[in-house]
Amino acid sequence: xxxxxxxxxxxxxxxxxxxxxxxxxxxxxxxxxxxxxxxxxxxxxxxxxxxxxxxxxxxxxxxxxxxxxxxxxxxxxxxxxxxxxxxxxxxxxxxxxxxxxxxxxxxxxxxxxxxxxxxxxxxxxxxxxxxxxxxxxxxxxxxxxxxxxxxxxxxxxxxxxxxxxxxxxxxxxxxxxxxxxxxxxxxxxxxxxxxxxxxxxxxxxxxxxxxxxxxxxxxxxxxxxxxxxxxxxxxxxxxxxxxxxxxxxxxxxxxxxxxxxxxxxxxxxxxxxxxxxxxxxxxxxxxxxxxxxxxxxxxxxxxxxxxxx
Length: 309
Fold this sequence. Notes:
By secondary structure, the chain is an alpha/beta fold. The protein has one domain: Alpha/Beta hydrolase fold, catalytic domain (Rossmann fold), CATH 3.40.50. It has nine helices and eleven strands. Strand 10, helix 7 and strand 11 form a beta-alpha-beta unit. The longest helix is centred in the middle third of the chain and has 17 residues, at about 125-140. The radius of gyration is 19 Å and the shape is globular. The termini are far apart.
């Protein structure tokens, strides 16, 4: 057995990663890379744009099939899940899903590639995602943005945030940041709503992911991690509609419901709806995207993005 210092494990989170004494990080699930493409069947086109080169913050744009030259679509900024520590906007897992989202809900989707913990501690993921929000806002405010797809086909009066698991957590925090410091994004961007799928807002008791990945505040009452414990902040959300999706057998289901109840009681003036998938576990729709219940969840999202405009 190798007993050298470099092989000694100092921290481990099952299914996510382990950290060795010499600082190396080994992930238990490594993601692949799928290049952007044009799909002749669905008509969805995708491409990558680098936002912050020094931090490798990049987005993948998904433009639905265009039926007229000046056609504009609701704009969706999507944050992938993975416990802040695994997965990628460019993996087969998420590229396939975001392609389906664009095709089936008819939104212009922006999928965010942010830096991962534990090498990049929280708030890196939030800072990277906020840099993307500011980049989008440059196009909405008409002067600095240079991405032609956004300039031609994004409806900045109908902007949504969404994500699954830790990505839903990041989406909430982007909406929260825009709400308490609204002028940073300018007036041209209207944040209409959020769709939070199986959101990761911790669970009852200590959380080993958050405590390790966020050393600046490892406590699980941090408003970024447990927003329901801070109703005065929740009441400031500027969006008008929120959809929460939970799974009956999801190990973090209860916190999704707690968030829902907190929204209803905190004084926020918007409309919140929660939908639960019976008999399903965490992010089942990514694991089995063609099953009937995953299709139903996609229909919930489509109705939300189109009817909330």
